[in-house]
Structure formats: C-alpha cells, structure tokens
C-alpha cells in the first residue's frame, strides 16, 4: 500500500525514507567538524550529544537529515539517535526562533513572579509554550530551573541570564529582541543567535571579541555555604532560630559570650515531633514512637 491513497487523496503521514542528505558543500563542512568532535572522545558514541548540537547549529533544530548524519558518523541507527535527541529538551524538534526565551516556572521563580511573567509573555507575543513568533525571532518556553534561584525570577535567552525580571522588563526584553536592538545579559557572554549558541555548545570556540572574557558568578546567597565552609567571616545566621529571634538581636551582657551553634542548626530536622512541639515534624504519634 502506498503512502498516498490516490482514490481519496489522503496522506497517511508516512515519512519519506531515507532522510535526504545535506548538500555536498554542507556535508563536506560538517564531515570535517564531526571528525574534530569525535576525536575528543575515546569512545565515538560519547560524541553524540555535541554532534546533535552541531547539526542543530546548521538548521536551527534537529532534522531527520541531522539524525541521519549523526547515525552515519557514529555507526548508530537512526532510532538510537532519535531516542537521545528527543530525550533532552535542549534539542529542538521543530524550527525555532533566533532567540530561545525561557522563563523559569520552578518553585522559587514561580512564587516570585515567574508564572506571571510567562503568562504575560504568552499574551504579549501571541504564542504558547514552545511556539515561535510569526517573524521567526522569538521562541517562548517555560523551563523548570535556571539554577539561579538567588536572582529569581530569571529569564534566559539562548542560555544567557537575565536576572531579577518583572513582567514589564520581560516584555521590553522580547520587544528589543524582535526589533533587533542590542540586548545585554545580566551576566555572561553577549547574546548570539540560537544557531550560533548551538555551535558553541558543540564545543567549538566562541570567536566573538570579548565573549570569552565575559563572565558572571553566583550571587551572595548561593555562595554563603561555600564561604562558611572555607572559614570566611560572614553573617552568623541566615535566618532566625525556631521559636526565637536572630542571635544578633538578642540582648546580652558585654561579658557574656553568645552560644556557639552551627549557622543553620535551627533548620536541622527534628528527631521526633515531640521534641519540637511548636514546629512538629509530623503527627504526635509517629511510627516507632510510644
């Protein structure tokens, strides 16, 4: 039975096999790039992830042609390559915009405004999740975590940080992107297109002037534990102890030494609910309790 029923003109949706190859000049360039990528790994199969970024850099998403290319380079089946490319969300399955705008909607960002930002951008851009504006400039998506909770709510554009966003600042951001105006991330390298970003993720150098030197570190809250572990001075406590006031607010005599406690001991789990009646960890009668 053919893929098309001529009597009714109904397409059954069966793909044309095999996938078409790249044009000769594109294939020659990608062959050279792939050889460089594969040489980095003792097991060629380990090169699959960067090769998927490489083909995504060529067309803006992972196409059937890109899957075929990766499979041929690594001696895999197209099913094996497809299984990987559809597992990781950084690999796009359909054409995307020049700028991938991801709004964190995980817990902390959400309660601080991430949900409101995402809803506002959907309305402002007229697109839904993982959809692209008609001009091909912006693809909007919600993401689970940007690993930048101390800057919440956070928006990322092509994996560069835009911290401490509001509904209005996020709207200005996407308007600037669509208008072609220069937009500077809060920290990190200058913005480039999604396809350029994909090539960098494939492991090729970012040759833009100043891009490598640009950097951005974690915020104060993220580094508090590291500073304490190193013995560096800092706030004695990150929050008040249970049932009391912060240590620095407690009146003391000049000759009285403050109690020495671990900076976060007040947040430690209680052994039983009976041991902390003001803040029980669970029902009074827990399993194993008398």
From TrEMBL:
Residues 234-246 have a biased composition (Low complexity). Residues 231-290 are annotated as: Disordered. Keywords: 2Fe-2S, Iron, Iron-sulfur, Metal-binding. The keyword Protease does not apply. InterPro entries: NuoE-like, NuoE_dom, NuoE_N, Thioredoxin-like_sf. The keyword Metal-binding applies. It comes from the Bacteria. Residues 251-269 have a biased composition (Basic and acidic residues). This is NADH-quinone oxidoreductase subunit E. It comes from Streptomyces syringium.
């Amino acid at each position: 039975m053919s893929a098309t029923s001529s009597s009714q003109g109904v397409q059954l949706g069966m793909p044309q096999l095999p996938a078409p190859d790249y044009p000769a000049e594109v294939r020659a360039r990608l062959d050279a790039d792939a050889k460089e990528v594969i040489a980095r790994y003792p097991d060629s199969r380990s090169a699959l992830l960067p090769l998927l970024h490489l083909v995504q850099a060529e067309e803006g998403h992972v196409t059937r042609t890109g899957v075929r290319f990766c499979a041929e380079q690594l001696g895999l089946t197209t099913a094996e390559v497809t299984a990987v490319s559809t597992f990781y969300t950084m690999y796009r399955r359909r054409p995307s915009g020049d700028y991938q705008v991801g709004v964190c909607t995980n817990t902390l960002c959400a309660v601080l405004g991430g949900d409101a930002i995402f809803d506002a951008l959907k309305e402002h851009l007229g697109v839904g999740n993982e959809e692209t504006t008609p001009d091909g400039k912006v693809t909007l998506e919600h993401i689970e975590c940007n690993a930048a909770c101390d800057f919440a709510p956070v928006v990322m554009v092509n994996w560069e940080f835009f911290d401490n966003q509001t509904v209005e600042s996020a709207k200005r951001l996407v308007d600037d992107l669509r208008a072609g105006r220069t937009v500077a991330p809060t920290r990190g390298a200058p913005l480039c297109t999604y396809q350029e970003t994909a090539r960098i993720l494939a492991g090729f150098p970012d040759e833009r002037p100043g891009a490598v030197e640009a950097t951005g570190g974690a915020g104060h809250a993220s580094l508090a534990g590291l500073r304490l572990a190193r013995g560096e001075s800092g706030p004695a406590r990150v929050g008040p102890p249970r049932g009391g006031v912060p240590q620095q607010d407690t009146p003391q005599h000049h000759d009285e030494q403050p109690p020495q406690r671990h900076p976060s001991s007040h947040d430690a789990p209680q052994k039983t609910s009976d041991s902390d009646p003001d803040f029980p960890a669970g029902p009074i009668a827990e399993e194993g309790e008398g």
